[in-house]
TrEMBL record:
Protein name in UniProt: AraC family transcriptional regulator
Superkingdom classification of source: Bacteria
Keywords, sorted A to Z: DNA-binding, Transcription, Transcription regulation
GO molecular function, one term: sequence-specific DNA binding
Gene3D superfamilies to which the protein is assigned, alphabetical: Homeodomain-like
Pfam family, one: AraC_binding
PANTHER family with a match to the protein in the record: HTH-TYPE TRANSCRIPTIONAL ACTIVATOR RHAS-RELATED, TRANSCRIPTIONAL REGULATORY PROTEIN
Highest classification ranks of the organism: Bacteria, Bacillati, Actinomycetota, Actinomycetes, Kitasatosporales
HTH araC/xylS-type domain location: 195-292
Amino acid sequence: MITGSGDDGTAADGGPGAGVVRRARGEWARHWRYPELPGLDLLRARYVRHSFPRHAHDGYVVCAVTDGIEAVGLPDGVVRAGHGGLVMINPEVAHAAWAGAPEGWAYATLYPSAELIAEIAGETSALPGTAGFSETVAEDPRLGRMITDVHRAAEAGNALAADSLLRIVVARLLRRYGGPLPARTPRTAGAGAAARAQAVLLERMADPPSLEKLAQELGTSPFALLRAFKDAYGMPPHTWLTDARVRRARRLLEAGSTPADTAVAVGFSDQPHLNRHFTRIVGVPPGAYRRERAAQPGAARG
């Protein structure tokens, strides 16, 4: 587990090693991918003043808090996890995160893809439908230590240990905290308009219409569209679009695009805007993210 951090971006136990992004106020982060663990992104970090705006992932999030307190804002309210706590978030669940204590928080996070979770669930559980997590927060120091051990093994280049530990961790998480994901069914009469709005924003990401023009195209009113979109996706359209732009930026950076070209391609006005939004949502700047992917090639995913 992480027991402390220094200004050089390392923890008392050695920290995340090469590739760490050093930040002000003792913050550090490393967001990377180990080629021997396909379908998985890894993040180890300590944040104090950094906060993650509302966003979502197309895969799962499993983090072990190793120091301090993390606060997570979810559709149903705010949850907190301290040392020894786990946070588990299913795909496409809108959430934000910030320090729940003045000293901030440190954690080790796994981002397994939907395909990876489905593969492990198929081998080890009898969960019906699509497997996911039925609990968001749990106190489980032992599993938390195993999550940090996945990171250590990957950082050491020990593919056998990293892969074995990852599968054991996911299987135990699903056994203790798993359940079938609820079916995605429209909850409001405006769900269809929200889905069409999402498609328009994806297609015209670099030059999106105003809310009023978008509502006119869809035959609804601006406020009705706002309500329907937030109900369907947990975010208003402009927040969702920023998150979608960052997701696409990740794929472009993984494919070798420069941050400057990526900013233009996804619709940010310039590279500083990409830097700001990307860092807030991903936790590291786009340049550092691209360097890690160049050093540790793997399949691109959002």
